[in-house]
Amino acid sequence: MSSNSSLDRRLLATIGVVLVGGLLGILNSTMAAVATGTLADALGTSLSAAGWASTGFLLAVTATIPFTTWAADRFGGKRLWVAGLIVFVAGSLAAALAWDVGSLIVFRVLQGFGAGLLDPLVLILLARAAGPHRAGRVMGLMGVVLSLGPVLGPIAGGAILGASTWRAMFLVSVVLGVVALVLAVRVIPADDPAVPGPARLDVVGLALLGPGFAAVVLGLSETAGAFTAWQVLLPLVAGAVLLASYGMHALRRRAPLIDLRLFAGRGFTASVTIMGLGGLGLFAALFALPLYYQHAHGHGVSAAGLLMAPLGLGGSVAMPLAGRLSDRFGARGLAAGGAVLAVVSVYVLTRVDPGTPEWVTALAALAYGLGSGCFSAPTMGSLYRTLPPERVAQGSSVLYMLNQLGAALGVALVTLAVQGAGDAMSGLRAVFWLALGVNVVVLALVPLLPGRARAGVPVEVA
C-alpha cells in the first residue's frame, strides 16, 4: 500500500509540474493577444505590425510541433522539456526588453519555439506517466489547463496592463517559467537511457510538414474579410501543397516523421477528429460570445472577458470528473452524453438576441463547457489507450496539430461570419449554428471511439 501511495504521489507531483509548464504557452499567447493595441501605441507602430508579435508566436509553435515528435523519442522527454523551458524563458526575457516592434516579433518567435516544444510534450509526458489505464483521469486534469487558459489569459493580461506596462506581461512569464524549470528538474523522472529513440531525423518530412502546417494556420489567421483575399489564399494553397507532398513522402518512407498509417485505426481517427472538431466549436464560441456581450449588451472588453468565465469553468469542472469515470466505464457513454449537452446548449445560443437576459447566455455557456469537457477528456483518454508506447509521441503531435487547426479555423469563421453578415447579431447566430453542426458531427463520431480498456488486454492499432 505504501509503495502504491508513493507512486501516486510521484505521479501527482509530475502531473502538477507538467501542467504548470503547459499553462505557460496558453497564458502567454492569450495575454499578448489583448495587448496588441497597447503594443502598437508603445512601440509607435501600426496595429497590423504589432499583431505579428502574436502571429509570429503562433507560427513558431505550429512549425516546431513536428520536430518535437522526433526529438521527444531521440533525446528523452525530460531533457526536451527542460530545453523547451529554457528557450521559452529566454524568449520571454528578451521580449520584455524589446526596443522596437521588429525585435519584439523576433523574440516572440523565440518564445514560440520554446512553446512548440512544451505544448505537445505536455500530452506525451502525461500519457507516459499515467499509462493506458489512468489516461482518462490524467487527460482530464490536462483539460483544466485547456479550459481555463484561454479564459484566464485575457483577464490576466488586462489586469497586468491596467496595473503596469506591457513589459510586465513577459516578465511574469519569466518568473513562472523559472519556477516551472526548477520544479521540472527536481520532480520529473529522469529519462530511461535503455530506451533509445530514432537515430535519424526525417529532414524532408520536417521541411514539408512544419512549414505546411504553419502556412495553413497563417492563412486562417489572416482571414479578415474573405477566403479569396491573396493574403489568405497564398499561404493556404502553399500549405496544402506542402502537406500533400508530405503525405506522398510519408507513405513511401519506412520511418516518417509522423506515420499516416496511424489513421488506418478507426479509434485513432475518431479520437483526433473529435478533438479537432471540438477545438473548432469551442474556439468559435470563445471568440463569438465576447462579441455578443459587447454588441448586444454594450459591455467593454474586460467585462465581456469576465462573462466568459462560465464557459471555462464548465470545462474545468467536467474534464477531471469525466476523465476519471472514463477509466472505469469507457469513453463512449460519457462522450455521447457530453456531445448531447453541447448540442442543446449551443442551440440555446443560436436563439439569443439583444433582449436575452445575460444569465441565460451564461448558463448556456456553462452547459457548453460541461458538455465539451465530458466528451473531450474521455476522447483523449481513449486515444492513449489505443496507442502503443512507441506511437505516443506521434499521436500526441497529431492530436495537438488538429486541435490547433480546428481552433484557428473556428476563429477565422467567426471573423468571416461577423464581417460578412448584414449586422453583428446575424453573424454571431451563424457562428453558433456552425458550432451546433460541429457538435452534431462529434455526436455521430462518438460510437467509433475505442471501447472500454480491460486490464491485461492490449488494444489493437492498425
From TrEMBL:
Protein name, UniProt field: MFS transporter
Superkingdom assignment: Bacteria
Gene Ontology molecular function terms on file: transmembrane transporter activity
The keyword Protein biosynthesis appears for this protein: no
SUPFAM superfamilies xref list: MFS general substrate transporter
Matching InterPro entries: EmrB-like, MFS, MFS_dom, MFS_trans_sf
Annotated PROSITE patterns: MFS
Annotated transmembrane regions: 50-68, 80-99, 105-126, 138-162, 168-189, 201-221, 227-247, 268-293, 299-322, 329-347, 359-377, 398-418, 430-449
Family: Belongs to the major facilitator superfamily. EmrB family.
Species whose genome carries this gene: Nonomuraea aridisoli
Compartments in which it is found: Cell membrane
